[in-house]
Write a structure and sequence with these properties.
By secondary structure, this protein is of the alpha/beta class. The chain has two domains: 127 residues, no CATH class; 332 residues, Aldolase class I (TIM Barrel). 34% of the residues lie in helices and 16% in strands. The strands form three sheets. Strands 14-13-12-11-10-9-15-16-17 form a nine-stranded mixed sheet. Strands 2-1-6-5-4 form a five-stranded antiparallel sheet, with helices on both faces. Strands 7-3-8 form a three-stranded antiparallel sheet. Strand 15 and strand 16 form a beta hairpin. The chain binds iron/sulfur cluster (2 copies). One iron/sulfur cluster binds next to helix 13 and helix 15.
């Protein structure tokens, strides 16, 4: 890229499951001001932060006084480029060349865009003006008189975990489900779907996402199909969008199951904790081979399975291998940190393992840099720290997320199913969750004491609230994985900056 003309490229972050990512502004010499299209967080074995944020930046007159965003984060990249972001409702990871960086520096004191552009001649002035407008749109500049506004967009998708069976064909070492032979009945499933859609309508959601889970949901796959068809009919009646995803351990995915998922438009997430013996050590002997066959089978019928990788002290050294496995197949993936159940040690127990997690994370990021994918992978890469868009909550628990167990009991999180808050027969399951907020306090990160002043707060959002409460008994402390977030988030930003730089250079 020439360093003469200011170039501002931002990452339109990935919807993890859809893998939809692109650099905006196709021609940097003619930058186009547009609202950022912030995409869905995709599939995780968890409640996602809310998706489909539509907080576009109101384009303010260039004559307004602007200044650099107060919490601007900037890190150098090769060739006098830099990667930047600032907490703002329209923030994105942004690549600047040297000229764009110098324009940003012009706003160390409040100035108007016209003032800054007016100091340059002819075409340079026009370029500078457009670049400054882009910087403003991306939140790197803010109006000088602006009051800082926390970004807490209203969710528009109601997400539900449907525990269609309590049965499982594996006994994973870290599983939190107390398995039994019980499965969700048709009556319970239909009632759950009807209640969830009633909640969605009543609370003004525009979309419903059903996560078919368990146990192993393929063991009750007929019910999955029945419920999805029922949900399609009901959401259609109410003008709601419907998304479905099957969360499977991948050992029992037949070709017919894969075909059905594709035909019904149900996405697929598969748990894969490592390659070969690393996976087997967590999930049982011989399971990797079976999962790998399922992955190939799914790809062969046109599915693009999302790989959900649970990171523990046992498999962390194998992260580069499993990341390479995903990249070789162009599959999206995310790393979920292990959440120990109650009574298995406090926060210090996890913190003692942070150094190993950091080392494993660095190794995985180095591998990604070596095999840089065309699409961004940093969206949901690091547990609940989502670099796709700023968010105040790490997940939807207590807000737009409902877990329904196989008997119809409702809880705020799948890891809290042992403490149900009500049942689907009460009519409005989301209201049950929301009115019992005290049980699982998912407070916005600005209200979380130790996190409130952290530069990473709108990307990390303080980590899993359930884990923190379980391990510390408090709601205002930082995550037990805080050190991992702080060590890896800058590296992830740099990685995305490098990706933008290389994809731009080869475009
Ligand atoms: S957990 Fe740590 S990195 Fe995350 S917001 Fe809190 S202080 Fe920042
Ligand atoms: S509380 Fe934790 S485990 Fe539960 S949905 Fe939220 S992030 Fe996931």
């Amino acid at each position: 890229m020439s360093d003469q003309k200011p170039v501002v490229i931002w990452s339109r972050e990935a919807a993890m499951a859809e893998g939809d990512c692109a650099c905006a502004s196709a021609d940097p010499s003619r930058p186009v001001l547009r609202r950022l299209d912030l995409a869905d967080a995709g599939e995780q074995d968890c409640a996602c932060p809310d998706s489909g944020v539509t907080t576009g930046l109101p384009l303010s007159p260039p004559a307004l006084l602007w200044r650099r965003a107060p919490e601007l984060y900037r890190a150098p990249l090769p060739g006098q480029h830099e990667v930047a972001f600032a907490p703002s409702p329209t923030a994105a990871i942004t690549l600047l060349n040297g000229a764009a960086g110098r324009i940003l520096d012009q706003f160390a004191v409040p100035r108007s865009i016209d003032q800054v552009a007016g100091e340059l001649p002819g075409a340079a002035a026009a370029d500078a003006r457009q670049a400054a407008l882009q910087l403003a749109q991306l939140g790197l500049l803010c109006p000088a008189e602006a009051v800082e506004t926390p970004c807490a967009p209203a969710p528009h998708t109601l997400t539900a975990w449907l525990h269609v069976t309590n049965q499982c064909n594996l006994r994973c070492a870290y599983c939190y489900v107390r398995h039994s032979d019980e499965a969700m009945s048709t009556v319970t499933g239909r009632t759950a779907v009807e209640a969830l859609i009633r909640s969605a309508v009543r609370h003004g959601f525009r979309a419903v996402k059903l996560k078919y889970a368990g146990g192993e949901p393929t063991l009750n796959f007929a019910l999955v199909q029945l419920l999805h068809r029922h949900a399609l009919a009901l959401t259609g009646q109410h003008g709601l969008e419907l998304q479905g995803v099957l969360l499977s351990n991948g050992v029992n995915l037949s070709p017919a199951t894969c075909d059905t998922l594709r035909e019904m438009g149900i996405r697929l997430a598969i748990s894969l904790d490592g390659v070969g013996a690393v996976h087997d050590a967590q999930r049982g002997a011989g399971t990797f081979e079976r999962v790998a066959r399922s992955v190939e089978r799914a790809i062969a019928v046109g599915l693009r399975p999302h790989l959900s990788i649970t990171v523990t002290a046992q498999n962390v050294e194998g992260l580069p291998d499993v990341v390479a496995y995903a990249l070789e197949r162009d599959l999206l993936f995310n790393l979920n940190f292990y959440r120990p159940p109650n009574g298995t040690g406090g926060a210090s127990h996890l913190q003692a393992e942070n150094d190993r997690l950091i080392a494993g994370g660095h190794a995985a990021l180095a591998l990604i840099e070596l095999r840089m994918p065309a699409h961004s992978v940093v969206g949901g890469l690091l547990d609940r720290a989502h670099l796709g868009y700023p968010h105040s909550y790490p997940c939807g628990a207590g807000r737009n997320y409902v877990v329904v167990d196989h008997q119809g009991a409702v809880s705020a999180c799948q890891m809290d199913m042992a403490r149900p808050l009500g049942t689907i027969w009460a009519g409005d399951p989301l209201e049950i969750i929301r009115s019992a907020r005290g049980r699982l306090q998912n407070t916005p990160v600005d209200d979380r004491g130790e996190c409130a002043s952290c530069v990473w707060r709108y990307w990390c959002a303080g980590g899993c609230p359930l884990l923190r409460q379980r391990l510390t008994g408090r709601n205002d402390t930082r995550s037990p994985y805080c050190a991992v977030y702080r060590a890896l988030l800058p590296e992830m930003l740099r990685l995305e900056g490098i990706r933008l730089l290389t994809t731009r250079a080869t475009a």
